[in-house]
Design goal:
The complex is a heterodimer. By secondary structure, chain A is an all-beta fold. Chain A is globular, with a radius of gyration of 14 Å. The model of chain A has no long low-confidence stretch (mean pLDDT 91). Chain B is an all-beta fold. Helix content of chain B is 0%, strand content 50%. Chain B starts with a strand and ends with a strand. Chain B is globular and about 35 Å long. In chain B, the strands form two sheets. In chain B, strands 2, 4, 5, 6, 9, 10 and 11 form a seven-stranded mixed sheet that branches. The chains are: A mainly beta, B mainly beta. Chains A and B meet through β5, β6, β10 and β11 of A and β4, β5, β9 and β10 of B.
Chain lengths: 114, 114
């Protein structure tokens, strides 16, 4: 089956620290990969995506590269801010199926302290 | 910016009662979804809906669940006879197509079953 595994949280960092949140996946087909973010009191928002191997998604200083050889899509940011405190979800979506369901990871709570 | 809205934000109900969660998707979107997240667990797909019928559902979406688009704007999830294990955050989402594009999520409705 299809699944997504994220690094265990919560993660606590100081402002301007380097962030990595690991994400690996298992998929029967050729997935598109996503990172969603949920800020306190808000819904899930798309942060970035990559639709094929070696694509790099980027947004708001965050980056993730689709690595087919390691089945990974790790999220990175060079210098986090307090406003980045949120829950981050890695997800995949298969392109071959007629449906379009997302399969999510467990979510990683990030807290950035000033 | 268009957004998906959900009501209520929080509902408390007694076991065995019927619950209806409401969603207003983005107006030109064609695909509609419900996901849920039990506290501390992954976000899980429940059902997708297109052209006034269910296009895909998960094993969680059993006979006690139903979805409906009663008019041109609302998309509802009904739980016929709630159980304790239905306590979760329920997220509605919509998308324009079913390619690898993004789903837009609402803020969620928290259901607590006592």
């Amino acid at each position: 089956g299809n699944s997504v595994t994220q690094m265990e949280g919560p993660v606590t960092l100081s402002e301007e620290a380097f962030l990595t949140i690991n994400c690996t996946y298992t998929a029967t087909g050729y997935p598109s990969l996503f990172w969603y973010v949920q800020y306190p009191g808000e819904g899930l928002q798309l942060l970035l995506k990559a639709t094929k191997a070696d694509d790099k998604g980027s947004n708001k200083g965050f980056e993730a590269t689709y690595r087919k050889e390691t089945t990974s899509f790790h999220l990175e940011k060079g210098s986090v801010q307090v406003s980045d405190s949120a829950v981050y979800f890695c997800a995949l979506r298969l392109r071959e199926t007629s449906g379009s369901r997302l399969t999510f990871g467990e979510g990683t709570q990030l807290t950035v302290n000033p | 910016e268009p957004e998906v809205t959900q009501t209520p934000s929080h509902q408390v109900t007694q076991m065995g009662q019927e619950v209806i969660l409401r969603c207003v998707p983005i107006s030109n979107h064609l695909y509609f979804y419900w996901y849920r997240q039990i506290l501390g667990q992954k976000v899980e797909f429940l059902v997708s809906f297109y052209n006034n019928e269910i296009s895909e559902k998960s094993e969680i979406f059993d006979d006690q669940f139903s979805v409906e688009r009663p008019d041109g704007s609302n998309f509802t999830l009904k739980i016929r006879s709630t159980k304790l294990e239905d306590s979760a955050m329920y997220f509605c989402a919509s998308s324009l197509g079913q390619g690898p594009g993004e789903l837009f999520f609402g803020e969620g409705s928290r259901l607590t079953v006592l």
